[in-house]
Amino acid sequence: MLRFLSAIVFAGLLLSGCATQGAQEDGAANAMHAYLAGMPKAELHLHLEGTLSPETTVRITRRNGLDYFTTVEEVKQSLASRPPGLMGFLAHHFKSQEVMQTRQDFYDATYKLAETLADNNIVYVDVFFDPQAHTTRGVSFADMFEGIDAGRVDAEAAFGVTINLIMCIQRERSVESALEMLDQAAPFRSRIIGLGMDSGPEYGNPPVKFRDVYSRAREEGYFLTGHHDVDVRDSIKHIWQSLDVIGMDRIDHGLNASDDDELTKELARRGICLTGSPVMRSTDPAPQDVDRIMALDSAGVCVSLNSDDPEEFESGYLTNMLILFQGASGYSRADMTRLMLNAFNSIWGTTTDKNAYIAALKSYAAAHDVVWGEVMSADDSDKAAE
Length: 386
Ligand code: HPA
Ligand code: ZN
What we know:
Layout: H1 2-38, E1 41-47, H2 54-63, H3 72-80, H4 86-97, H5 103-119, E2 122-129, H6 131-135, H7 141-159, E3 162-170, H8 175-185, E4 194-198, H9 211-219, E5 223-224, E6 227-228, H10 235-246, E7 250-253, H11 261-270, E8 273-276, H12 290-298, E9 303-305, H13 318-329, H14 333-345, H15 351-367, H16 372-375, H17 378-385
The protein binds hypoxanthine and zinc ion.
């Protein structure tokens, strides 16, 4: 009997030990999530057209009297059934953005996006938009742009988030069409910070195809960036073109660089930043490309985390994506803060603005016992020690 009782007591102690350990782990995870949620953030790779929620899509559809995407279920079904890969993703992406037709639609999409960004403690964002996707179906550049820009101005005032706009070339379209887009954008030049390139397929539409467009954009004062989607044929060659022929200021995605030592070293040497986007779909076991991001980070490449098309991926908006990435990588608070520091360092703003954002990040980290020396990459720490 005594033996039986002590076995019960022992089992009880074991269980309470397990429960205590489980509670401690939950507590640590919750503390990490709270740290990531509260952290002041920047996001540099976010497509306006990928931020239409099913509810907003349906609201705009009904307002415009369209006969598709008339229910939230229909939008969700189209998302869930899209084929894997970039082109499958783009099929849904193009269809859903076509609901936007009037200036008011573009205004609403932008304003609603900024509200969600503020909930994620995002203080700075670069938003991509695809003019050709809209002008080629009859929307005027002015209506589209004035809608987006008015939404941006009102949202900045309401939510305190700074928004810059990057207009993208759709790479499958012609060079002439891209040059025409630059012409149409000329009256709005001062309100568009950069020129990017997206859509697809990428293979067959390399960065050099748009060499003349980028060179004219550079002369007109745009910053330059462009998509290098992951695991696309010739991705590494495309990244070299963007560095050496186009002279891009940033590289979107570009995570295949981690497969090539020479390219990795060159990105680190030149301080060119990548906007990584480890999104997740219901079919993915974990966010994509975590290993590549970690490899680039440990090689001293400036890589940031971004949500890309948050309404079209299960990973959603940035706070959730950071939580997923941290869970998959096991990164510490200091490591996660370094990735966010990379984003602030990649902003195309004035040094004063950049320093103010970084100071805010630094004081947030300090208030949560994060040692700044552990945040900086080995490369930066060497520089600081000099
Ligand atoms: N790649 C290419 N085109 C896109 C993307 C992307 O990640 N998101 C929206 N359009
Ligand atoms: Zn993208």
